[in-house]
Amino acid sequence: MTKRAALITGITGQDGSYLAELLLAKDYRVFGLVRRSSTINFERITHLQDQVELVPGDLLDPSSLISALQKTAPQEVYNLAAQSFVPTSWSQPVLTGEFTALGVTRMLEAIRVVNPAIRFYQASSSEMFGMVEETPQDEKTRFYPRSPYGVAKLYGHWITVNARESYRLFACSGILFNHESPRRGIEFVTRRVSYNVARIKLGLAKKMKIGNTAAERDWGFAGDYVRAMWLMLQQDTPQDYVVATGITHSVQDLLKVAFRHVGLDYRDHIEIDSALLRPAEVSHLRGNATKARRELGWEPSVSFEQLVAMMVESDLDLVSKTQTPAGRLREVIASEA
Ligand code: NDP
Ligand code: GDR
Q1: Domain CATH code at residue 91
Q2: What pLDDT shows up at residue 1?
Q3: Which atom of ligand 1 sits closest to the CA of residue 175?
Q4: Residues tagged active-site
Q5: Fewest 10 Å CB contacts: which of 4, 41, 44, 283?
Q6: Phi and psi dihedrals of 51, rounded to 5?
Q7: Mean pLDDT over residues 265-283, rounded?
Q8: Is the N-terminal amide bond of 136 cis, ω within 30° of 0?
Q9: Whose CA is nearest to atom 41 of ligand 1?
Q10: What percent of the chain is modeled with pLDDT above 90?
Q11: DSSP states along 188-215
């Protein structure tokens, strides 16, 4: 029997790497769309290099998407590619709109041209809830995005719903709350904290800068969340689902747990930096994933404390090994992002 094939955009990102692992374990043929760059940035998928097949393409370029779909003939497309860092969406709002919003339309149109039977997953975000209108947030909660990123994701969400309703595409939008891992980009708060805790513990720094410590998020483990993406595309009908743990912690809780893990008190090692505050903040998010639990049978398997411990342990290992140029560059980004 021929294997099922899936195309992942954003395979070089955090989620792309976990999803590729999951699909390979399910015996899929896994293709990843990668954009051209002058240096190789396959760090997160190096361990999969003999198993995944990479195809060139960019969400900015419609013909490259058509060609990628023709070459790979997938049954499923997971659209994870995006400009995903919220602060960058203020400094590069047009580019964020091009990648994160219009990129979704370009992929949906390519699917319509090449094979409308392809099942499509769109990586929507809890950032669409923004200034929350109710707590916890579920599939019926009204949206109120608070950044150009959130606005772009909202467009991607509605164009996915619209493709389903206009053309009967099997198009699903997963409204995922924050999910983290040792593979998280160094600029996101959980990884900035785990990385800096490791540097401080190993004597390479004394303090770390931090922004709004009162912000609250519903943090889960990325490896759990990619399972929900796959489950959505295995259902009889395409629908949208909130995916979250239902438990919220503040950035201050994150600092407390991460520093405590290495026997330190966070209050001795942080400095509030107003440059890390955002023009408009999302203060509190908590998801209600009842529908995903009921209809997909999805459950998170990693607690907040386990997640933080996993990330700190991984960065202790990384920092103790890396004194390479890439390691030094990472330190600059981690201290300033
Ligand atoms: P990452 O930032 O780790 O990865 C983003 C990926 O998108 C990278 O592979 C990047 O490629 C790729 N990409 C960016 N622009 C383009 C482009 N123009 N063409 C092709 N590829 C491009 O994100 P995550 O893995 O954390 O998130 C995956 C998706 O889920 C994103 O859409 C994000 O917005 C969304 N999301 C994430 C959540 C989270 O908590 N992680 C929660 C909710 C939604 P390159 O390596 O070349 O830069
Ligand atoms: P977020 O994640 O914006 O929720 O988007 P991030 O980790 O960047 O911020 C979470 C909260 O922490 C506060 N914060 C800091 N954030 C960063 N990055 N650096 C800091 O030093 C810092 N100090 C405090 C922020 O103000 C914010 O309130 C992530 C991304 O993965 C999106 O792509 C995704 O859609 C959402 O999660 C769900």
Answers
A1: 3.40.50.720
A2: 76
A3: 43
A4: 125, 127, 149
A5: 41
A6: -110, -30
A7: 98
A8: yes
A9: 179
A10: 94
A11: SHHHHHHHHHHHHHTTS-S-EEES-TT-
Backbone CA torsion sign across 210, 211, 213, 218:
negative
User: For residue range 289-336, what is the model confidence (pLDDT) as tens digits?
Assistant: 999 999 999 999 999 999 999 999 999 999 999 854 455 555 655 655
- Same domain for 136 and 275? no
User: If phi over 0 gives left and psi between -120 and 50 gives alpha, with beta otherwise, what is residue 23?
Assistant: alpha
Does 155 share its domain with 21? yes
pLDDT tens for 82-141 read: 999 999 999 999 999 999 999 999 999 999 999 999 999 999 999 999 999 999 999 999
41: its two tokens: 């940035």
Helix (H) or strand (E) holding 112: helix 103-114
The number of domains in the chain is: 2
What's the longest Cα–Cα distance across the chain?
60
List the residue whose alpha carbon is closest to atom 37 of ligand 2.
178
Round to whole Å and give the CA distance between 184 and 192.
9
pLDDT of residue 325: 46
264 and 120 belong to one structural domain: no
Could you list the residue range(s) of the whole structural domain that residue 97 is in?
5-181+219-243
- Cβ(293) – ligand 2 distance below 6 Å: no
Answer whether residue 285 is part of any domain.
no
- Ligand 2 pocket mutation, candidates 15, 143, 217, criterion most atoms within 8 A of CB: 217
Domain assignment present for residue 288? The answer is no
Looking at the CA of 68, which ligand is closest? 1
Where b means 16+ CB within 10 Å and e means fewer, 149-167 reads: bbbbbbbbbbbbbebbeee
| Residue of 8, 9, 11, 15 best suited for mutating to test ligand 1, as the one with most atoms within 8 Å of CB | 15
Q: Which two tokens stand for residue 292?
A: 């995903």
The CA–CA distances, whole Å, from 115 to 26, 73, 264, 324 equal 23, 8, 55, 46
